[in-house]
Design goal:
Distance between the termini: 41 Å
Order of helices and strands: HHH
CATH topology: Diphtheria Toxin Repressor, domain 2
Shape: globular
Radius of gyration: 14 Å
CATH class: Mainly Alpha
Largest sheet: none
Number of domains: 1
Structural class: mainly alpha
CATH architecture: Orthogonal Bundle
Helix content: 55-70%
Number of helices: 3
Number of strands: 0
Length: about 80
């Protein structure tokens, strides 16, 4: 049964989250809100065992950057 007003988060493996947070920590200015650009950047930065893993990492990084942007704009105001 679905509850009104309650959104569930996406389930991601800890490995994806750990790698993504480490990359954003090392290269905070290189990643953008564009998934395709992030995917290409990850391909140059690390060797992934699969395309699916690379895409999951890029997707999580994209969502992290999007989540950080509203916080940054509030700080500027």
């Amino acid at each position: 049964m679905e509850r009104v007003g309650e959104e569930l988060g996406k389930v991601r493996p800890q490995r994806v989250k750990r790698i993504a947070k480490e990359l954003v920590g090392r290269y905070p200015d290189k990643f953008t809100t564009n998934f395709e650009d992030n995917k290409k950047l990850i391909e140059t930065l690390i060797e992934t065992s699969s395309i699916k893993l690379r895409n999951r990492i890029a997707g999580y990084i994209t969502s992290l950057i999007v989540a950080m942007q509203p916080a940054q704009t509030e700080e500027l105001e």
